[in-house]
Amino acid sequence: MSVIAPNFKLSEFIKSILDNLFWILLIMALIGFPAIQLVLFFIEMPVINGELLTPFLALTWLIDPSRSLPIIKAFMTTDLFRVAAFPGFGFAALIAAGTIFVERKMLAKLQLRVGPFYCGKIEGILQLMGDGLKLISKEIIIPAKADKPLFWAAPVLFVATAAAFVALIPVAPGWVVADVDVGLLAVFAVIGFFPIITILSAWSANSKFPFIGGIRALYQMVSFEIPLILSLLGVVILTGTLNLSEIAASQSSFPWIIFLPIGAIVFFITMLAELERIPFDLPEAESEIVAGWLTEFSGMMYGLVQLGTYLKLYAFAGLFVVLFLGGWSGPMIWPPFPEEIITEGIELGPVTAQFPGLPVFSQEMLNGTVWFVLKTVGVIFFILLPRGVFPRIRVDMLLDLGWKKLIGLAFVNIFIALGLLYAGILGPGGIF
Amino acid sequence: MSFKKIRSKKCAYLFIQKLGFKAKLVGELAGNYSTVVLMFGFAVAAMAPALVISRMLSPRKRSNPVKFLPMECGQVPTGEGRTHFMMQYYAYILMFVVFDVVAIFLYAWGSTILYLPKDATLPIIGFLAIVFGAMAFALHQSGRRDIW
Fold first, then answer.
1. Phi first, then psi: what are they for A349, rounded to 5°?
2. What digits encode the pLDDT tens for the residues A180-233?
3. Of B65, B92, B114, which is closest to A428 when you measure between CB atoms?
4. What are the strands, taking DSSP E only, across A29-91?
C-alpha cells in the first residue's frame, strides 16, 4: 500500500500543479516584482558597457537576446555549466537513461519478449519515468541491525564516485570537466573507490546475502584491476602522455585499436568485470544470492545505485572510446553554419532578429560530440549484448581468467607496443 | 651549492617540464583536480534530495518488526549477519596489494619512455622477469587449497 497509488488521478495531479503555478505567479506579480523594483532603486547599481545598470536596463537585457547571449556564453565557460550540464552530470545522466531503456528493449528482443510496452504509447518510451515515480514513492526499509549512517551514505557515495569518474572523460576538444595532467592515473584512483563503497554498503547492511555479494565484488574488482591497468600501458607507451585529451587528440589519423587490438580486448573484458555485467555478474547473481550486495536496498536507494551503475557504464564506454577508438576524431559531418545567421540574424516570419555571435557551439565541437556519442553508443551496445548471450561464470574461473590469462595478454600487448616503438613504426620519427 | 648539484636540479626541472607538468607549484597542480571534487560534490548535492524527497513522499509504517529483519527469503534469520569470509581467496587480495603497486610503477616508466634512452628499457625487462617469477610463485601458492 502506498500513498500515491489508490487515489491517484492524473487529471487531479495536473490540476494541483496548475493551481500551485497560478498562485506562485499571482504572488510574484503582486508582491515579488514590486518588491524587487523597490529594492533595486535603493541599491547602487554597477556600470556595465559604459551604461549605468538601471532596473529597466536589467529587464531589457533579459528580453533582448543580443544582450543576454554574451551572458549565456560566459555562463557556458564556467565550471558550474561543465559540471552540471554538458560534459558532466546532465549529459552523462541522459546517456545513462537512454542506456537503461535500450538495454531493456534490446534484451527483450533477444529473448523473444516485448519489453516495456504500455507506458507512453510509443514502445514504452516513458517506462523509465514511471519506474522513477514508483521508486521515489516506495518505502525505504532499512534492516534493523544495519549500520544506518553508512547504509544511507553508500548509494549517494556510489553515484558521486561514478560522477567523479565521468568528470575525467573528454567529450570534444576542450570540453572536459577536469583536464588533469595525469588523467589516466586519476581514472585508476577513482575506479579504486568502487570496491570500497561496495564492501562498505555490504558490511553496513548486516545481512548475509549482501555480505556474500560484497565479498564477491571485492574479489572480482581486485582481480580485474591489474589487467585493466596493464592493458592501457601500451597506449601510454605509444603516446607518451597520461592526459586523456592528449591521448584522444593523438589518434586524429588512426585509432590505437588498429595497432593494439589485444589491449583493447583485454580492456573490454576487464571493463565488463568492473561493471559487473553478465558473464561476470557474480556480485549480483540473482539466481544464487537474491540480488547480491543490492539485496537490502529498497526504493530510491536502489534507484540511486542503478543510476550510479549506468553512469559508470557510460564513463567506461567513454574511456574505451577515448583510449582505443579515437575519441572525438572523425570526418566532418556537421554542416557548416550558414553565413547569414552570423551576419543578418534569424528570420522568423516578418521578424528578423539579430544575434551577434549566435552559433553558441563551434562546428568542431558539435562534430566531435556527434562522433564521440556515436562511438560511445556503439561500445555501450557491445557491453549490453553479452547479457542476452552468455551465462555466468564460476568464481574460480573468474580468478583464473583474471590472474593468468588476462595479465599474460596484457603483457603481450605491452611488448607489442614496445616492438612498434623500437621498430620505428610508431612514435617520434616513426613511419606514421 | 656546487655546480653539479645545480645542474642536476636543473635537469630534473627540465625533465619534469618535458613530462607535461605545466604547473610549477604543487598547489597549482592540485588545483586542476578541484573540478573532480566539484563533480563529486555536485552529485552528492543533486542526489541526496532524492532520498529526502522519497522519505517525505513514501509511507513509513513501523507496524511489524518482521518487516525490518534482514532478507533471507522469508526465513527468520539466525546467527551473525557478517559471516562467511571466504579464506581460500584471501591470497588473491594479498597479491593485489603487491602487484597493483607494480602495475602503477610501470606507468612511471611507460609515460616517459619517449624521453628515455633505449638502454633504460633493459632494466625494466629484468624487473618484469622478476615480477613474472614472483607472480607465478604467488599464483601457485594461492592455488594450493590445502594451505588456505
1. 65, -125
2. 888 899 999 999 899 889 988 988 888 888 888 888 888 888 888 889 999 999
3. B114
4. 47-48, 51-52
